[in-house]
Amino acid sequence: MTLVGLALAQAVKARALELGFDRVAIGPARLAHGAAFERWLDDGCAGTMDYLQETRAERLDPARVLPGCRSVIAVALNYARGDEPEWRGVARYARGADYHTVLRPQLHALRDYVSAASGARSRASLDTSAVMERDLAAAAGLGWIGKNTNLIAPGLGSYFFIGLVLTTADLPADDAAPDRCGTCTACLDACPTAAFGAPYTLDARRCIAYLTIEHRGPIPDELQAPIGEWLFGCDVCQEVCPWNRHAPPAGETLRGRATPPPAPEVLVGMSDEEFRAHFRGSPLKRARRAGLARNAAIVLANRRRSAS
Prior knowledge:
Layout: H1 3-18, E1 23-28, H2 34-42, H3 50-54, H4 56-60, E2 71-78, H5 99-118, E3 122-125, H6 133-139, E4 144-145, E5 151-152, E6 160-167, H7 186-190, E7 196-198, E8 201-202, H8 208-214, H9 221-227, H10 236-239, H11 264-267, H12 272-278, H13 288-307
Antiparallel strand pairs: 1-2, 2-6, 3-6, 4-5, 7-8
Helix pairs in contact: 1-5
């Protein structure tokens, strides 16, 4: 790698931190777990997330998203929050404004910087793009993929969003982070719905986050009681992870005020108009009104069950 390449990589990292990202790493435009992803899809573990199957080829090869892609710049933006009673039952990542609206301008600024500094073609990518952002971020050394399938970074934990800039520039890659889960199985043992068939393998069809956000229609009867109080998403496998015990709080960018959801008793009877007004700009819109009403009904049933 030339001195010019090394200098460019250092400049790109400095710019990423200036833009407000908490971590940055650079890696190759190739996957480490492509075969595992294909097996996961073939086994039906994606549930009804058909878009993953439909974009399989693109997800397996970043060059299909950006022809000539050679390097990936992976960034992390911390969203860790403490206990907030008014947000009970809502995953931490969804307790503020839609993270796409926060990350996208920062990623676009980083993309533009990379292109201007290198003369290369670059593309910003979030989880709405057909890329495997977690796998590419792990290959760049941003963290390692833990047994709970989340990306974990020392000193940061796993409460962070991942953003990528794909580029045709040839940048020196950082070393991959070693797996530091060791013999710990806290996340596997704590999962309320036993969604982990094995370490590093999540069956989305049993995952509370999938069931309460992505899944449309009724939730299987045997999985309703384990959902407990979770209205939108689930943080259990992250809450018990030792690497999150000392996770730093989110920066000012993600600590903005947002409106918590109303009580489940209100949610079950919300009209479409009321739903749109209350959750405008919120990640909770992803579940749609019918989905949140379904989840609220399950939470109420679980409360009655535990009180009897």
